[in-house]
Cbb3-type cytochrome c oxidase subunit (Hyphococcus lacteus), 290 residues
Amino acid sequence: MGEPERDPYTGRMTTGHEWNGINELATPVPKLVLIFLALTFISSLIIWILAPAWPSVNNYTKGILGIDQRTTLENSLEKADAITTPWRNEINSKEFTEILNNDDLMKTVRQHGARLFADNCAMCHGTDATGGYGYPSLVDDQWLWGGDPATIMETLRIGVNSGHSESRISQMMAYGRDGILTLDQRRTVGSYILSLTQGTNADDAKLKAGSEIFMQQCQSCHGSDGRGMRSVGAPNLTDDFWIYGGDPVAIDQTLREGRQGVMPFWDDRLSLADRKALTLYVLDLAETRK
């Protein structure tokens, strides 16, 4: 480190530091930067005094204003409750048919239900409620457990295979994986299942054999006519609505691996009014798609 000297080009003193022939100027910190730092420090002091800031052993400084984000949220929730309580109470007190026939209340149901559906249902059933692979459509009137308002709301409350103490339980056996049916038997009964809805090229003998397997293994849940049983959540096999696909490969995969869909329960997340509004929203959505 050399001695400070005056730079002949700028007229400023150097620091005495030199790198590869370049001398470092003793340039002072700009006053604007110092002013900014001073204002920042003063602002922090003010915030420390007004708002919660410093932690202590068991608590924290509250600030003379006594406000924080939790308080702000609580106040916001209180205001929201004051606005929504009247129509929530009205929804809770009225029967489904009364609400459906009340245009003003249904307007609220559509607005609130749309938000509820987007937050809780759309990720599985789709934003348009038409479902997808593994998730049933809610607008085609093909309900696994029943499509009346009370049944839909109960399904929302307890879910399916959800872990709720009252959950609906439904499971399709893995006929191939568990060694119940051979590949040929699965293909035979698969052809019969397809014949129920769209017809196949299988000969009569194969359909008869498939029918016998169906009666032995499938009719206890899907019914002897294949139209399903809502009491156990078994789908109708005679229509053209398939959750996991209705082609021979998809049907064989279902027969081979089995199915056990899961729907979460909303008993502890959505209030009675929310579940009721969501039920009516889904029914109204299905009605508009007809």
